[in-house]
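Schema walk-through. Below, the input block comes first and the output block second. Nothing else is stored per chain. Lengths vary across the set, and this one has 239 residues.
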Amino acid sequence: MLKIKGLTVETAGKKVLENVDLEIPEGEVHVLFGPNGSGKTSLIMSILGFPNYRVVSGEILFKGVNITSMPIDERVELGIGVAFQNPPAIRGVKLGDILNRLTEGEVDAWKLAESVNLPTEFLRRDLNLGFSGGELKRSEILQVLAQEPGLAIFDEPDSGVDVENLEIVGKAINSFLDGRSGLLITHLGHILRYIEADEAHVLINGSIACSGKPIKILSQIMKEGYRWCERCPEARKPR
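--- output ---
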């Protein structure tokens, strides 16, 4: 579904990703761990094709198509959907209208909202305007569920979500990803209590330090922090 080969990226003259290799087969859910500033958001922006993230070398393939130089809208039309960690508020655009446009009226937007515990009154409100952190997160996730992309990327889905809603959101994402391809970006990994993931990767200083089973890697991170990943034999291999 997604194949990234030797990807090196710069933004504002600074290298933010270096020689990243990442492959997500169709129907698999992968997790990307990493400390703050490790390049996780930069990877998302590069996958989407934001122009201020300049690909220095390497390539990105989606569904077998080389999308490295493709504009954002064409990548989204191919089937890439992202729930951003910090989306903007848009005055004059109703959340319900966005959902109806995404689903073309074929899916009940009200039931979708209930699935992530977002009160249906929010569908009548301007997009993300005055939303709390948790409401903002659920609004983003809701839009990806409505879009039904071939590859769904969730940026820090457990950030700013309380314990009760974390379970609801986690189970909704897990149900949605059943049989689909997904990439979860997380710092603390709380969402993995409710989501079944196939593979995990750790991004350190813009490079993949190691990969393995999600629970095993998360357990090591919780015990020893991200310094453990830097000592991983895979991280010491020549690049």
